[in-house]
């Protein structure tokens, strides 16, 4: 039997999630659901200066709203002892070495190399330091940062999206794993977690390809086999520029506040980068059934907020009442299913239902454009009970009596009854407004 898959989404709680890393979350979640595996949420909070509890809570909330519930969640700040143990192991194996250069000294080194036409790769001079030299640095108050000694060999993997990858380390400096204040950079903790949590597939953005090459060496140095990798391309804005500058505006929080439907976000995130046209699913099960990592292309993908808005509106137009009942109640909107079915086709956001609820129930202010016509309309009103046919019956009578048709027939009625010149089908609204209020509105 194949090993159960385990994947993780690993945001840093230094901000809320945005559309870019949400796509990473969606791909991981779909992969787990599709393969019957597990989806873990890992909070990469080793950067204690920038990580906050509020952001951590916000991320959990955003995922919950999107419907991407993790099977398990943990944070790196709880696991420092595991990273310390890995550190000791790497030191003992001679793969982690202390360096004492200041940022200025490193900068000068790089400039000299560049001036001589050499790649600015760290020269490993710290490897040659004698115990006396190290002691002298320590006595000066310098604290070491620690670099991982890369092996100069090719590393290859078969990427689930990018295909066969091969990376050689000639132009890469030995990466710093531990800062001189003792804090961990992302590279090592991620590998330790992926080992301990038995992660089978790392699905993340292609900005991590170089990290992957380094991390494969780390997995091996720690006696583990690296998981599979899949690197998806990155999102560009509709203008073809990188998204990062605008990520604040595209946070999941802001999309939610602006009335976007979560299923629209998940659907678009699942479809971007495939050659498929966006197809509105009935539910997430359909998305899961349809999902295949191999369908993702390597090319960068444009994300267009307008496309998301349009998709969200289309989704709302077919949302069943049960999907919105609670939200409508919270908005103070009554009327049950008949009201929802009458107005949903006209909404871009569910919250706009409240506008139509007021239109139906509260007195409208309209200029009586055409009082004689409205008076005549009043006399031709059908008797109750009213239903889906009432509008047609009524306007047919009026058409016969007045010879009016089209806009001249319908618009004065719409304006008198709703106070507006646009909106949901009158055939749906009319029975909701009801005969009594209709008479009232035709009179004023
Ligand atoms: N915290 C890292 C990031 O958000 C995680 C990358 C990974 O998935 O390994 O970029």
Task: List the defining traits of the structure above.
mainly alpha, 12 strands, elongated, 444 residues, 4 domains, Glutamyl-tRNA Synthetase, domain 3, Rossmann fold, three-stranded antiparallel beta sheet, three-stranded parallel beta sheet, binds glutamic acid
Question: How is the topology of this model organized?
Answer:
Blueprint: E1 6-9, H1 19-35, E2 38-43, H2 53-66, E3 72-75, H3 80-92, E4 96-99, H4 103-115, H5 131-139, E5 145-148, E6 155-159, E7 163-167, E8 176-178, H6 187-196, E9 201-205, H7 209-221, E10 228-232, E11 235-236, H8 252-257, H9 262-271, H10 284-290, E12 301-302, H11 305-317, H12 321-330, H13 336-343, H14 353-361, H15 371-379, H16 390-402, H17 406-418, H18 426-443
Parallel strand pairs: 1-2, 2-3, 9-10, 11-12
Antiparallel strand pairs: 4-5, 5-8, 6-7
Bound molecules: glutamic acid.
CATH homology superfamily name of the largest domain: HUPs
Within the CATH hierarchy, at the fold level, what is the topology of the largest domain?
Answer: Rossmann fold
- CATH architecture call of the largest domain: 3-Layer(aba) Sandwich
Structural class: mainly alpha
